[in-house]
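Show me any protein, fold above all:
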Amino acid sequence: MKEPIRVGIIGLGGFAGAHHRAIKNLESRGEARLICTCDPAAAHFDAPRQEFHLAERGVQVFDDYRKMLETCGGQLDLIIVPTPIPLHEEMHRAGVERGIAVYLEKPPTLDYLELERMISCDRLARHATLVGFNFIIEPPRLALKKRLLAGEFGALQETRMLGRWPRPTSYFERNGWAGRLHGNDGRVILDSVLGNAMAHYVHNMLFWAGGPELMSWAALDTVQATLHRAYRIEGPDTFFVQARTHSGIAMRYALTHTRTPVSAHSETVVCADATLDYQVGSGGQIRWNDGRIEPIAPERFETLEANHLAYFSYLRGETDRPATRLVDSRPFVMLNNLAFVSSEAIHTFPTERIGTYRDEREQKDYLEVAGLTAAQDAFLATGAWPNELGSPADGPAAVSAADLDRFHRTVKALAKPESP
């Protein structure tokens, strides 16, 4: 019989609720046991406390994670950290210093210097931290990457990611750090469609381009980007990003939170002999150059439960590593940071192209940008920068790791919202 993994969850609201549900389900199967949880507003979370049956399960509830760790740290195998990004470093360190494994929600941080401090801290950990990028261990994805690395599709040439995830005005008012570049304490936040909302999928693309090992991510050579906004926020709501890896693979990302006719996300991997079209939750297809179409069947995948179980296997010594470690997050953080350095500015879309859309069913307001859908499609197909939407006529500068020392100065200079 396996001993259940003893868990503490930092948080009761927001995405912490999803982890509570996952752990409750795993507890019913004997895989886990929730020992404790905490939230600064714990006294006001009556609904979650009842939903998760915390009292009936004997879960101790605290109003501060430090009190929780001081009281229960010796009983814990694992803490889950689904908290605002600026809190990740200190909470990660607190777990490591007490010898407790850490499941850290994505993104671990969006500041390359902070990430390096966290990597250094994790070298002292009893168990490597898991960063919660959810889709790396999907069985169809792993099977396809094995075939990709074996050369079955020919040489990998380029990857393309389309992200159309409309968000209403209220989305940027959901908390004090939404759409922000910096927190009130001056620390980097960089909340955006690239860095947070669609971070899972951006990390997926870096995984496709990694090699020669299965669990590897792209090593970036250069990054070019133009950042745009329609919403009245501090950061960008739209990204056009092009990167090149050390091995010469081209990567393109076209992502937006503005309203588009159809919400969509897709991952495309172009090889010499075939093109892979993949969509989380829907499978996809392999389009062979000789005209054959090979379907990629979707598989049932309980995201958080699957990732917890995989990490439990590592903690029990059954596997040799977590799916995504902090060190594996370097390309993702670097891509985000260099996108800002390359763009140098956040280009407000031309006023005449910005429209308002009222969703009467949701009772929410969205902004939409005329011509954006066509510009995304053209960029992914050809690399054409959206000059008509405010991108520089000669395109953005190509930057590399050597330019990371400009990142903090660049973000500090951008940290003032503009009115579209």
Observations:
- The chain has a mean pLDDT of 96.
